[in-house]
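Progress against Task 2.4 (sequence-to-structure conversion) is shown through the following example record, which the project officer requested during the mid-term review.
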Amino acid sequence: MSTDTLGEFESALAGQDVGCTHTEADGFADALADVVEPPAVGAPLDIDGVSLDGTGVVTSPTPRQLRDAETGVAQAGAGVAEYGTLVVQSDVGGTEPVSLFPPTHVAVLRASDVLPDVRAGLDWLAEEFAAGRDSAVLATGPSATADMGAPVLGAHGPKHVHVLLVTDR
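Structure tokens generated for the chain above:
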């Protein structure tokens, strides 16, 4: 993955009013603390050297904790640079509800998982589906609708999104 791809991803995120913070694994807890508004819930992360342990983020939240959370922290399986899209997969750790219910979603994404375009994203999804991981949400920016007149943020998901991009290579 090239620096151009990451630059395009960040530019597309900015165009959607989505913040992006680069971090190394050893700086993850501090970067997370800068963007989380408590109470926060999260799903387990599958990134070497990165964990929600000791961050104050509740993993395996109860339905009430999920409902009351201001921030949800969940790993995105991939990012699509062309549009600043995040691919959020459903899993037993609760990634999908944690990313969709709280008003703010902090997406944790490995830099190497940013794909250049939709074609690469669809190829990646085809591999995931073939491996039995066949449920995913493609989210571009905060949730919004305009079917009631003026645009409304957070109608079907988070009002705010921030990406923590973890350098892994």
